Amino acid sequence: MKSVVILISGRGSNMEAIVRARISGMRIAAVISNRDDAAGLAFAAAQGIKTAVIPHKGYANRAQFDVALRDAIDTHAPDLVVLAGFMRVLGDDFVRHYAGRLLNIHPSLLPAFPGLHTHRRALEAGVKLHGATVHFVTAELDGGPIVIQAAVPVLPDDDEDCLARRVLAEEHRIYPQAVRWFVEGRLALDENGRVEVKGAGSATFALHLPPLDME
Ligand code: NHR
Ligand code: GAR
Predict the structure, then answer these.
(1) Ligand 1 proximal residues by C-beta, below 6 Å
(2) Residue from 171, 174, 179 to probe ligand 2 pocket by mutation (most atoms less than 8 Å from CB)
(3) Is CATH 3.40.50.300 the classification given to domain 106-215?
(4) pLDDT single digits (tens) 71-125
(5) Where are the domains of the chain?
(6) Which residues pair with 148 in a beta bridge?
(7) At what angle do helices 160-183 and 13-20 cross, to 10 degrees?
(8) Which of 1, 83, 136, 167 is the least buried, fewest Cβ under 10 Å from its Cβ?
């Protein structure tokens, strides 16, 4: 049985998608938030999952927060740590401690638009495809090895909210899939540091696109 700790900061809909996927061979040991007002905590508690809050504001600096968070996580001795809408940048020591067992979902088609406000920046750039990426976390922000991506169209009348909603629906499909692969032991890094998904029938992309001529 693989044990997983999920880190959230807010709504927690990606955490919820992972919980609802009922991935066999996986136990969710805890859901931990850096904010006590994270809506996702209530869902986790209602599911009988242990919850904890490590408020980043309670620490003098980022390094001390990272240590407290790491201690809280490690009481559960997880095989995997999942960032699901977790909004604090983590330091090198933290990331190194969880090397190869720390996943994040980022709301863009990386390497485009790392960092914050991805939907606004995609609209400003005029890209016609946008999406989401699950990747292993490294010290380089949103720069770690890519596991799976989903693309959605950017439509002419889109605003930030409706584009975010379209991307989020895809996040809820690809994140449980990536976690399932990890739990099944099917993710490996090749000699170039790229992710290989072992086994047949492992599409590492999802496309939800209208036909080119939309008449
Ligand atoms: N930490 C490392 N080292 N590497 C990554 O790839 C990380 C990470 C921590 C979080 C998620 C990421 C995203 O998917 C993530 C990836 C927060 C910020 C940020 O600037 C940027 C990227 C991500 C998450 N946060 C502000 C900060 O000062 C706070 C913003 C807020 O609280 O609203 O940490 O997008
Ligand atoms: C998701 O879109 C996730 O990709 C994004 O925040 C949202 C969280 O939603 N993550 C980041 O922007 C990380 N910086 P959720 O709390 O409902 O899963």
Answers:
(1) 83, 86-90, 95, 104, 106, 115-116, 137, 139, 141-142, 144
(2) 171
(3) no
(4) 999 999 999 999 999 999 999 999 999 999 999 999 999 999 999 999 999 999 9
(5) 1-98, 106-215
(6) 134
(7) 40
(8) 1
Q: Any idea which residue has 């000699």 for tokens?
A: 191
* Side chain identity at residue 122, one-letter code: A
Dist CA 118 CA 106 (whole Å): 9
The per-residue pLDDT for range 132-152, each reduced to its tens digit, is: 999 999 999 999 999 999 999
Closest CA to 66 of 47, 86, 49: 86
Predicted TM-score (pTM) above 0.85: yes
Distances (CA, A) of 79 to 2, 25, 116, 191: 6, 12, 28, 23
Pick the CATH number of 1-98 from 3.40.50.170, 4.10.910.10, 2.40.50.140, 3.90.226.10: 3.40.50.170
Rounded to the nearest angstrom, the distance between the alpha carbon of 191 and the centre of ligand 2 is: 30
Q: Where in the sequence numbering do the catalytic residues fall? A: 106
